[in-house]
Design a protein that fits this description.
The protein is an alpha+beta fold. It has 7 helices and 13 strands. Strands 1, 2, 3, 4, 5, 7, 10, 12 and 13 form a 9-stranded antiparallel beta sheet that branches. The structure holds 2-oxoglutaric acid.
């Protein structure tokens, strides 16, 4: 099995709960994805989650409010085009995941974070601090998301912020709100929040992050749409809990292609 991550990179991932690989996707791949996405948003091709659906801070109140029909996630990315599938099962991605998850048989979920995240100028919302485990129901909280930047990502356009090492922190339930976002209204969370750092990404850069790593993102304050492709993976032996949203569609074994 090919081991593209150096021992130091693997240690960094284990310590920080995330790792950025620069220029992992080729320019051709990025251009092809951007073409498909641009053709999928005017009009928005279903299934789509709109800004009004997420009910995050800054979201339009309803689909009929101004900006309510702004796409936030183009869902089912894996099924949308071979370009998205080829990336999801590329050796560049899967061999790294095998090392991070420490297993040879890696699966991609079709249930959530199998999407293109879009953030539009004018009508984007803010994602509060959370761990992606709030979405998932698995035997073990051992999943890794792979976030491919399709253009520049900075705090200005709603790029991700991360708290290094937060995947190892066990917080009492009271530090999270009803929707499992980190509470901003209590002093106990401040020291953790003070450690946040931005993930500056350019097209082709790829952020791998653990499902327990706290992250957040602001609104897009620029004039250009931000687009990112995200999938989540787990080992074959780590099963989705039956009858949950995580088990809705079958997970797919990703055999890397060169
Ligand atoms: O792009 C964003 O606002 C962050 C998205 C995110 O963290 C999520 O959907 O879990």
């Amino acid at each position: 099995m090919s081991k593209p991550l150096t021992p130091q990179q693997l240690r960094d991932f284990q310590k920080n709960g995330y790792l950025i690989e620069r220029s992992l996707a080729s320019e051709d791949t990025i251009n092809a994805m951007n073409r498909i996405i641009d053709d999928s948003v005017r009009p928005a091709l279903a299934p789509v989650e709109y800004e009004a659906d997420v009910h995050y801070p800054g979201s339009p109140a309803s689909k009929s409010a101004p900006g309510g029909q702004t796409p936030r996630r183009l869902l089912n990315a894996y099924a949308r085009d071979i370009v998205f599938r080829d990336w999801a099962r590329s050796a560049a991605v899967v061999d790294r995941l095998r090392q991070m998850l420490d297993c040879s048989s890696v699966m991609v979920s079709q249930n959530h974070h199998n999407c293109v995240m879009t953030k539009y100028p004018g009508f984007s919302s803010q994602t509060s601090w959370h761990q992606d485990m709030r979405y998932w129901s698995f035997d073990k909280p051992e999943l890794v998301s792979v976030w491919l930047a399709l253009g520049d990502e900075t705090p200005d356009n709603g790029g991700l912020l991360l708290i290094p090492g937060s995947h190892k922190v066990d917080l009492p339930r009271g530090r999270l709100d009803a929707a499992l976002f980190l509470r901003g209204d209590i002093e106990e969370n401040q020291a953790l929040l003070d450690q946040a750092i931005p993930a500056h990404l350019q097209a082709g850069d790829t952020l791998f992050f653990h499902c327990r790593t706290f992250h957040a993102a602001g609104q897009n304050e620029t004039q250009a749409v931000k687009k990112s492709l995200v999938y989540t993976y787990h080992c074959e032996h780590n099963k989705a809990i039956p009858e949950t949203r995580s088990a809705n569609h079958a997970d797919i074994i990703v055999d890397p292609k060169p």
